[in-house]
């Protein structure tokens, strides 16, 4: 059954704009209710406004990624809601007759909002009355003085980590274990320490301290995951999202070269990729944003990079893109300030088949919708 759709692409501004309306009609309330439901499912209960604001301000890549996923579920211009439920377990319906594609974008953004990557280092700690005793016990070496023992311990990979409550010297061992964890602090705390509930990051830090653990934090902010990152990082986070959904889909994203002898060759190259099922995106620097886009978007700052959906080349070889539900024309003269990306969502089973065909020098079939 086909349902009405508010727009054919996700728009990063719409959720916050709807939330900010003073007077909200019935359909607006239905859409907001669905956004909030998705946020709660992703552990966001009290910071709804800030998350939707950040989506509007920082979510251009998330909008692009959402539109790549949406393209997979489109069949002759009609969105396949049932396939979406089967592959991602996500219902985009706001009532019996309408769907809102922004629900997918809100789900992707909020599911990654409080996720971090931690490089975790586990140490062993010991207590000794003196550094000489520590050197003898830990290194099997006899030191003639505390200063000599300090040097020997340092060279052996140990460090002095303070004084205990009983006045004994605390010696921190060599790093004995390194692991990387990805998830919310609560998820990582459960895996590391077996706790079912975490009240704050401060509590996590105390647990680490009590278990002789230090960590390096990566990607604490959503902007670090999705704003201006290399495509390999975008792949990582989108596939992390898909894995959390227990999906059998895989996302790929690659930069494209625009090093062609003439624009016609490049246009042919892009069109061939699109015919093969790829969705083309464009990322630009601050110059492009300021020149063409900044007057259209109040949430973003000047001189900001931006990622957009590529639509087509016009008759003058200018680049027509879509962002915030509108089309913009970027002059062909600025093509060297623009990076093109080709993205695709595929079934993992088909990817394995493609790899087998590559190894046998066989051509790759176009992507399947199902």
Question: What report would you give on this structure?
Answer:
With 370 residues, this protein is α+β, with helices and mostly antiparallel strands. It is 42% helix and 22% strand. It is built from 15 helices and 16 strands. It has a six-stranded antiparallel β-sheet with strand order 11-16-12-13-14-15, sandwiched between helices. It has a three-stranded antiparallel β-sheet with strand order 9-5-10, covered by helices on one side. Helix 2 packs parallel to helix 6 and helix 7 packs parallel to helix 8. The longest helix has 16 residues. The radius of gyration is 26 Å and the shape is elongated. The two termini are 17 Å apart. The C terminus is likely disordered.
Low-confidence stretches: 356-370
E-strand count = 16
Helical stretch tally? 15
Per the principal axes of the C-alpha atoms, what is the gross shape?
A: elongated
Q: What proportion of the residues is helical, as a percent range?
A: 40-55%
Rg from Cα: 26 Å
Strand order of the largest sheet: 11-16-12-13-14-15
Largest sheet: 6 strands, antiparallel
**How would you state the average pLDDT, rounded?**
82
Structural class comes to alpha+beta
Distance between the termini: 17 Å
What portion of residues belong to β-strands?
Answer: 15-25%
Keywords, please?
elongated; alpha+beta; disordered C terminus; 370 residues; three-stranded antiparallel β-sheet; 42% helix; 16 strands
Element layout with pairings:
Blueprint: E1 4-5, H1 14-20, H2 26-41, H3 48-58, H4 60-72, E2 74-75, E3 78-79, H5 81-88, E4 98-99, H6 102-113, E5 116-122, E6 125-128, H7 131-139, H8 146-155, E7 159-163, E8 169-172, E9 177-183, H9 185-193, H10 201-210, E10 213-218, H11 222-226, H12 231-244, E11 249-256, H13 263-275, E12 279-284, H14 286-293, E13 306-313, E14 319-323, E15 326-330, E16 338-347, H15 348-359
Parallel strand pairs: 1-4
Antiparallel strand pairs: 2-3, 5-9, 5-10, 6-8, 7-8, 11-16, 12-13, 12-16, 13-14, 14-15
